Amino acid sequence: MAPVMTAEAVANKRKRELDEQSKRKRRKHGRTATKPDVANGSPLKPELAIRVNGTEDGPDHEEMALDVVKPDGQAKKQHKRQHRSRAQKEVAAKNGTCKWRVSKPIGGRMLNIDPILTEDEKHLIIAYNTSLQVYSAPESLLLRKIQLSFSRIDGRRDQIAAVCPSATSPNLLWVASYGGSIWLIDWTTGAGSEEHITLDCDRLHDMFVDSAKIGSDFKDILYVSARKEEAWHIIAYDVRDFELVGSKTLFSYTSAIENLRVAHLGHTFAAYAERNVILGSRKHETASTLEDLAYEVVTLDASDEITCLDIQVTSRAHLNRKSQREASDAPVIDLVIGCARGAVFAYSDLLPQIRLLNNPKKRHHALQPRKYHWHRKAVHAVKWSRDGNYILSGGSESTLVLWQLDTLKKDFLPHLSATIENIVVSKHGSAYALHLDDNSAMVLSTAEMKPITYVSGIQAMLSPRPISKDDSVKRIGQYTPDQLTSIPAAMSPSNSSQMLICVGNGQQLSHSGSGPSMPLIQALDLTTMQSVSRQALTRTNPTDVNVTSRGHPITEPRVTGMKYSHDGRWLVTTDEWQPPSRDINSLDGASSERRETYLKFWSVSAETQNLELMTRIDAPHHSSQVESVFDLAADPKSDRFATIGGDGIARLWQPTIRQRDGILIKGKKGRQLYSWNCSRAISLHGNETTGDLEVSNEFSQGSGAVAFSEDGSVLVCAAVHEHGSTVQVIDTESGRIRNSLNGLIKGSIQGISVLSTNLIVLSDALMVYDLVLDELRYGVQLRKAMGHEVEDAHGPGASIMTHLAADFQTGRFAVAVSRGKKGSIKVRSELAIFSPDGCEPELVQSFQSPITSLTSSPSSSGFLVLDSAAQIWAIAESMDTKSLAFAHPLADLQLDQEPIADSEEVTDTPGLIVEGDDEQASEDDMDVDMTDATDGDAIYPAVVAPQRLAALFDTAPSFAMPPIEDMFYQVTKMFSAKTVVPAS
């Protein structure tokens, strides 16, 4: 009778047979070198190390190609074929010979420029870096993207500086760039985006367009704030048919002139420079040529740094002859400014007061503006209402403030999603448009203060941190160094068009604490590039008093990782928080001893994709203190997750049916409830145990990564601690460590994955190891300074920005590496796609902005890249029908253009229109252009202030009211007429 062999004995026998077969093959091919001693912990020999770049990096890191040299005998075979350089690989990708293709970027950030609400209030126009996007106001749908072409200035790409509607034609827009380029674009068709003129200036800072009477006609005059010959000037330009007809310098100053505004048919302009208000008024009402355009300019000193202003000019109404003699027929100029310390100053009827200041008999006269102070920090935006009775202001408090001038009463619209950056009042005064710091914009009805339009893009953190008006004044705890941070992201297995991204409460709040704050999760629809929902995963302080008694901002927790289950029914997240060191100076112990770490399991709704918290595990990894969770992984075959932490233990988590006294607990709609518990704890020092483990702190300052095999039978854990590093291969059923591999980790571990029978380990070096043959396939040294170059190990190019993602559909994996020189803020990323069978990368692609997240979809092939400019790139195989094609811009589809025709009514299904996007680093969303109805009716219902209805019905008792027929006609007249509606 044959002896019975256990499964372990069979596996060992199979391994020995494979080893003997491998040795015979090596002897047959005459290999003279032995296999690298990885399992015994011997480091790789210098000749086996793989270098990044054969030469030193240039100043822009343009030579970051991955040149791979395989060990020993394979090196001879490798030496026979020439490696293609990175430039050759990118040319091959452009020519279509490369099997991988990289889409054009989608997403990006809205510029800090006032959005444009058209005269009919049907369309909202938003400016991005190199494009304009036109949205339908009632539906919040993108109608058109107008792409502009830019050149490079001083090594940096030019971008849009100002966008202004034409004062003579409602369908035209004037667009200016910082390099001095000027476009005249028809936003209804996109015409005019290919042709532009360039002004003679060193740098254009701001622009405003107003009509002025030159000769007998009213023409669009461009008022430009620009730097020229070491000074800043306000210059008036006359541009006709893309030709510069004339120009005249109106004012010159020694510092930058910002926030230029013009009103009353060019009668008055206003701007500010540091603490000075610049105000100019026309000397003569008429001018035969542009050279005759003359202004009387005065500068007014403010008591604080100015951050924003607005001007309102109205015709003067005389009550008697005396007022006419004193003030003449000069218009009434009202000015409001917002300051860096939160104050708002309103100046009324400035011209008579300025004349008194210039009068020698009135030497003691001084301007006395009205002061309004509610904002804690700088006022980011301020505007007059159309009737002049209200002032609107907004700042970092996420609250819109309406100041009623007559009664000094304040009205608030609180709890907005982020800092208010721009405020726009519609021409008829019935709507406000707000641009928020979290890359969103909305249109509010003035009567009901409810949003009728909402547009939101990718809200991920930017790097470097955007310049804020709060930086005008140094505050306690305000400065935080720019540091690149990896952003957790995940693709839903059940909904392949939805991507989850960890975000914060706007850019300013995310960067204001002692570290980056990302307590929220944003669900992004990749088919429309619109935000579907946003949900808090940790505690937040978005609108409460979020500063301490000493003025330091309160630091919010940060989501450090998230993974979907194999079927998309569960989402697991980890978040971490620890107090800033400044808050515990008077206490014993370090800040890390008070760390808070949570592991949370969320149930995903199949209908709405909303998250419901099922289980929260406090301190899932702990030794003598709470330890960080280094990494987590999802079992691709079952509802099981694995985590590895600073306690040197790998834990498996599985759900159990929730019961109470033996009775099943049901949730809403009779749904079964579950609780998640640790089903197995495996010490990386030895075998698995289910009791309390005695752990040391040697892993607390290290790093770790964990991954499942494709069938879920094997768990691989990589850990780096103060005594070295190791990779453990664990049987998930028994919890036993089957193999230990040393020498695969160089520096901190950044990622690990199992692709078929290959183990992929990413640290400062990339290692591909065959688990069956028990041999190293190849390695790539990723982080190695060459020659005189010194890489900043703790700066923006630190290894935290190294990413690994495996695509199980194609059997390929992608590696993203960001590098930066010491003392330089410029960081670039490079992405390479490898096959486990070959050391030659199939694609090498450079990115101008550092890559902050790299993900792959479980249900489709390809990769998604998120960079620090909030742009998403899709990388997929050219011939793969299951690739991530939904994330490509519609510009790649080459659809025919159907321009909007104002004279035609919509009688069929709206057509698609696409504008091409040739700018690699542009910030554009997906484009769907829909023909719109252009009848005379308003798109959304008219709104009527409650005061007007009260004035109609409360004028007399019920017995003295007019006939009901008359009342009906008066009410219908209110809702049908387009009148100016004052703010409520």
TrEMBL record:
Main location: nucleus
Classification via SMART domains: WD40
Region named Disordered: 1-94
Sequence ranges of the WD repeats: 372-407
Gene Ontology biological process terms from the UniProt entry: positive regulation of rRNA processing; positive regulation of transcription by RNA polymerase I; rRNA processing
Protein name listed in UniProt: Uncharacterized protein
InterPro entries xref list: WD40/YVTN_repeat-like_dom_sf (IPR015943), WD40_rpt (IPR001680), WDR75 (IPR053826)
Keyword rRNA processing recorded: yes
Protein's UniProt keywords contain Membrane: no
Pfam families, per the entry: Beta-prop_WDR75_1st
Gene Ontology CC terms: small-subunit processome
MF-aspect GO terms: RNA binding
